[in-house]
Design a protein that fits this description.
The complex is a heterodimer of chains A (about 110) and B (about 120).
Chain A lengths: L8 E4 L5 E6 L11 E6 L6 E4 L13 E6 L2 E6 L8 E8 L5 E3 L3 E5 L1
Chain B lengths: L2 E5 L3 E2 L5 E8 L7 E7 L6 E7 L4 E3 L7 E6 L4 E6 L8 E8 L7 E4 L3 E5 L2
Parallel strand pairs in B: 2-11
Antiparallel strand pairs in B: 1-3, 3-8, 4-5, 4-9, 5-6, 7-8, 9-10, 9-11
Classes of the chains: A mainly beta (about 110), B mainly beta (about 120).
Protein backbone atom coordinates (compact mmCIF):
# COMPACT_ATOMS: atom_id res chain seq x y z
CA UNK A 1 0.00 0.00 0.00
CA UNK A 2 1.31 3.45 -0.88
CA UNK A 3 1.30 6.40 1.47
CA UNK A 4 -1.32 9.06 0.98
CA UNK A 5 0.01 12.24 -0.67
CA UNK A 6 0.23 15.43 1.35
CA UNK A 7 2.12 18.67 0.67
CA UNK A 8 5.39 18.72 2.58
CA UNK A 9 4.73 22.14 4.03
CA UNK A 10 2.19 24.94 4.26
CA UNK A 11 2.32 28.28 5.99
CA UNK A 12 0.03 31.09 6.99
CA UNK A 13 -0.15 34.16 9.15
CA UNK A 14 -2.10 34.36 12.40
CA UNK A 15 -5.80 34.75 11.75
CA UNK A 16 -5.61 33.35 8.23
CA UNK A 17 -6.99 30.04 7.01
CA UNK A 18 -5.03 27.23 5.44
CA UNK A 19 -6.00 23.96 3.79
CA UNK A 20 -3.99 20.74 3.66
CA UNK A 21 -4.84 18.16 1.03
CA UNK A 22 -4.54 14.40 1.27
CA UNK A 23 -4.78 12.37 -1.92
CA UNK A 24 -5.32 8.65 -1.98
CA UNK A 25 -6.89 6.07 -4.24
CA UNK A 26 -10.07 4.11 -4.80
CA UNK A 27 -8.87 1.53 -2.28
CA UNK A 28 -8.50 3.93 0.63
CA UNK A 29 -9.71 7.57 0.70
CA UNK A 30 -12.34 7.05 -1.99
CA UNK A 31 -13.49 3.72 -0.57
CA UNK A 32 -14.88 4.78 2.80
CA UNK A 33 -15.54 7.86 4.93
CA UNK A 34 -12.79 6.72 7.29
CA UNK A 35 -10.30 9.55 6.92
CA UNK A 36 -8.70 11.04 10.00
CA UNK A 37 -6.36 13.93 10.65
CA UNK A 38 -3.74 14.03 13.38
CA UNK A 39 -1.79 16.90 14.86
CA UNK A 40 1.70 16.16 16.16
CA UNK A 41 3.90 18.55 18.07
CA UNK A 42 7.64 17.80 18.31
CA UNK A 43 8.43 14.90 20.59
CA UNK A 44 4.76 14.14 21.23
CA UNK A 45 2.37 11.45 20.16
CA UNK A 46 -0.13 12.28 17.41
CA UNK A 47 -3.51 13.62 18.51
CA UNK A 48 -6.65 13.06 16.46
CA UNK A 49 -8.33 16.32 15.46
CA UNK A 50 -10.72 15.07 12.76
CA UNK A 51 -12.15 11.58 12.27
CA UNK A 52 -14.54 10.02 9.78
CA UNK A 53 -13.79 12.89 7.38
CA UNK A 54 -15.71 15.62 9.21
CA UNK A 55 -16.10 14.83 12.91
CA UNK A 56 -14.23 16.61 15.67
CA UNK A 57 -13.45 14.82 18.93
CA UNK A 58 -14.63 16.48 22.08
CA UNK A 59 -12.30 19.28 23.09
CA UNK A 60 -10.93 19.99 19.62
CA UNK A 61 -11.38 23.55 18.44
CA UNK A 62 -14.05 24.21 15.83
CA UNK A 63 -11.35 26.07 13.90
CA UNK A 64 -10.45 22.62 12.53
CA UNK A 65 -12.70 21.16 9.83
CA UNK A 66 -12.47 18.32 7.34
CA UNK A 67 -13.96 17.41 4.00
CA UNK A 68 -13.55 14.92 1.20
CA UNK A 69 -14.20 14.77 -2.50
CA UNK A 70 -13.61 11.48 -4.28
CA UNK A 71 -10.02 10.42 -3.51
CA UNK A 72 -8.90 13.68 -1.90
CA UNK A 73 -9.53 14.72 1.68
CA UNK A 74 -8.82 18.16 3.08
CA UNK A 75 -8.15 19.70 6.47
CA UNK A 76 -8.89 23.38 6.93
CA UNK A 77 -7.65 25.38 9.87
CA UNK A 78 -9.26 28.79 10.24
CA UNK A 79 -8.12 31.66 12.42
CA UNK A 80 -4.56 30.35 12.57
CA UNK A 81 -2.90 30.57 15.95
CA UNK A 82 0.73 30.14 16.92
CA UNK A 83 -0.15 26.93 18.77
CA UNK A 84 -1.33 25.37 15.51
CA UNK A 85 2.26 25.16 14.31
CA UNK A 86 2.84 21.39 14.12
CA UNK A 87 2.99 18.44 11.77
CA UNK A 88 -0.32 17.19 10.39
CA UNK A 89 -0.99 13.68 9.12
CA UNK A 90 -3.98 12.23 7.35
CA UNK A 91 -4.87 8.57 7.48
CA UNK A 92 -7.41 6.30 5.85
CA UNK A 93 -8.79 2.85 6.45
CA UNK A 94 -8.38 0.68 3.36
CA UNK A 95 -10.28 -2.05 1.55
CA UNK A 96 -7.71 -4.53 2.87
CA UNK A 97 -8.65 -3.66 6.47
CA UNK A 98 -5.37 -1.87 7.01
CA UNK A 99 -4.55 1.76 7.60
CA UNK A 100 -2.38 4.06 5.51
CA UNK A 101 -0.98 7.43 6.53
CA UNK A 102 0.05 10.47 4.57
CA UNK A 103 3.64 11.62 4.52
CA UNK A 104 2.85 14.56 6.76
CA UNK A 105 2.62 18.32 6.33
CA UNK A 106 4.61 20.82 8.37
CA UNK A 107 2.50 23.86 9.20
CA UNK A 108 4.41 27.05 9.89
CA UNK A 109 2.60 30.01 11.43
CA UNK A 110 4.43 33.07 10.20
CA UNK B 1 -9.41 6.96 30.95
CA UNK B 2 -7.42 4.35 29.06
CA UNK B 3 -3.67 4.92 29.05
CA UNK B 4 -1.03 3.12 27.01
CA UNK B 5 2.61 2.70 27.94
CA UNK B 6 5.12 1.24 25.51
CA UNK B 7 8.37 -0.34 26.57
CA UNK B 8 11.27 -1.86 24.72
CA UNK B 9 15.03 -2.40 24.59
CA UNK B 10 16.06 0.96 23.13
CA UNK B 11 18.90 -0.57 21.10
CA UNK B 12 18.72 -3.64 18.89
CA UNK B 13 21.48 -5.20 16.78
CA UNK B 14 20.96 -5.65 13.04
CA UNK B 15 19.45 -9.02 12.05
CA UNK B 16 18.03 -9.55 15.57
CA UNK B 17 14.39 -9.55 16.66
CA UNK B 18 12.84 -6.45 18.19
CA UNK B 19 10.35 -7.06 20.98
CA UNK B 20 8.04 -4.36 22.30
CA UNK B 21 5.26 -4.31 24.89
CA UNK B 22 2.33 -1.98 25.36
CA UNK B 23 0.67 -1.94 28.79
CA UNK B 24 -3.00 -0.98 28.91
CA UNK B 25 -4.34 0.69 32.04
CA UNK B 26 -7.48 2.50 33.10
CA UNK B 27 -9.86 0.55 30.93
CA UNK B 28 -10.75 -2.71 29.26
CA UNK B 29 -8.43 -4.44 26.82
CA UNK B 30 -11.37 -6.44 25.54
CA UNK B 31 -13.73 -5.40 22.78
CA UNK B 32 -11.08 -3.17 21.29
CA UNK B 33 -8.64 -3.20 18.42
CA UNK B 34 -5.04 -2.33 19.22
CA UNK B 35 -2.39 -1.25 16.74
CA UNK B 36 1.30 -0.59 16.50
CA UNK B 37 2.40 2.42 14.48
CA UNK B 38 5.95 3.62 13.95
CA UNK B 39 7.71 6.85 12.97
CA UNK B 40 11.29 6.87 11.70
CA UNK B 41 13.34 9.93 12.59
CA UNK B 42 12.12 13.03 10.76
CA UNK B 43 9.66 10.92 8.76
CA UNK B 44 5.96 10.13 8.68
CA UNK B 45 3.80 7.58 10.42
CA UNK B 46 3.55 3.98 9.28
CA UNK B 47 0.86 1.58 10.48
CA UNK B 48 2.32 -1.82 11.32
CA UNK B 49 -0.39 -4.16 12.59
CA UNK B 50 -3.59 -4.55 14.59
CA UNK B 51 -4.98 -7.16 16.93
CA UNK B 52 -8.41 -7.67 18.42
CA UNK B 53 -8.73 -8.96 21.97
CA UNK B 54 -9.87 -12.29 20.56
CA UNK B 55 -6.59 -12.64 18.67
CA UNK B 56 -7.72 -11.62 15.20
CA UNK B 57 -4.88 -9.80 13.43
CA UNK B 58 -3.92 -7.94 10.28
CA UNK B 59 -0.58 -6.63 9.09
CA UNK B 60 0.93 -4.01 6.81
CA UNK B 61 1.75 -6.00 3.66
CA UNK B 62 5.21 -4.45 3.49
CA UNK B 63 6.10 -5.79 6.96
CA UNK B 64 3.91 -8.87 7.20
CA UNK B 65 6.69 -11.41 6.71
CA UNK B 66 8.66 -10.04 9.69
CA UNK B 67 5.97 -8.97 12.17
CA UNK B 68 3.97 -10.74 14.86
CA UNK B 69 1.45 -8.97 17.08
CA UNK B 70 -0.07 -10.65 20.11
CA UNK B 71 -2.27 -9.87 23.10
CA UNK B 72 -2.22 -11.13 26.67
CA UNK B 73 -5.52 -10.12 28.21
CA UNK B 74 -4.56 -11.40 31.65
CA UNK B 75 -1.51 -9.13 31.71
CA UNK B 76 -3.33 -6.37 29.83
CA UNK B 77 -0.49 -6.17 27.31
CA UNK B 78 -0.10 -5.98 23.55
CA UNK B 79 3.20 -7.17 22.15
CA UNK B 80 5.04 -6.68 18.87
CA UNK B 81 7.90 -8.72 17.47
CA UNK B 82 9.81 -7.57 14.40
CA UNK B 83 12.43 -9.96 13.07
CA UNK B 84 15.57 -9.44 10.97
CA UNK B 85 15.76 -5.75 11.80
CA UNK B 86 17.88 -3.29 9.85
CA UNK B 87 18.69 0.39 10.26
CA UNK B 88 15.47 1.15 8.38
CA UNK B 89 13.54 -0.14 11.40
CA UNK B 90 14.95 2.61 13.61
CA UNK B 91 11.91 4.56 14.76
CA UNK B 92 9.65 5.62 17.58
CA UNK B 93 7.09 2.87 18.02
CA UNK B 94 3.61 3.81 19.25
CA UNK B 95 0.76 1.63 20.34
CA UNK B 96 -2.71 3.01 19.77
CA UNK B 97 -6.37 2.12 20.27
CA UNK B 98 -8.84 2.16 17.43
CA UNK B 99 -11.74 4.36 18.42
CA UNK B 100 -14.86 2.37 19.23
CA UNK B 101 -17.70 2.61 16.76
CA UNK B 102 -15.62 3.47 13.72
CA UNK B 103 -12.75 2.13 11.67
CA UNK B 104 -11.65 5.66 11.01
CA UNK B 105 -9.26 6.61 13.72
CA UNK B 106 -6.94 5.93 16.63
CA UNK B 107 -8.18 7.91 19.58
CA UNK B 108 -5.68 6.93 22.26
CA UNK B 109 -1.90 6.73 21.79
CA UNK B 110 0.98 5.87 24.02
CA UNK B 111 3.88 8.25 24.33
CA UNK B 112 6.03 6.01 22.14
CA UNK B 113 9.25 4.11 22.68
CA UNK B 114 12.38 4.89 20.69
CA UNK B 115 14.19 2.00 19.06
CA UNK B 116 17.59 2.28 17.41
CA UNK B 117 18.98 -0.50 15.25
CA UNK B 118 22.75 -0.38 15.34
CA UNK B 119 25.73 -2.60 15.90
Amino acid sequence: QSALTQPASVSGSPGQSITISCTGTSTDVDAYNYVSWYQQHPGKAPKVIIYDVTYRPSGVSNRFSGSKSDNTASLTISGLQAEDEADYYCSSFTVSSTWVFGGGTKLTVL
Amino acid sequence: QVQLQESGPGLVRPSETLSLTCAVSGGSISSNYWSWIRQPPEKGLEWIAYIYHSGSTNYNPSLKSRVTISVDTSKRQISLKLSSVTAADTAVYFCARKQEGTWGTFDIWGQGTKVTVSS
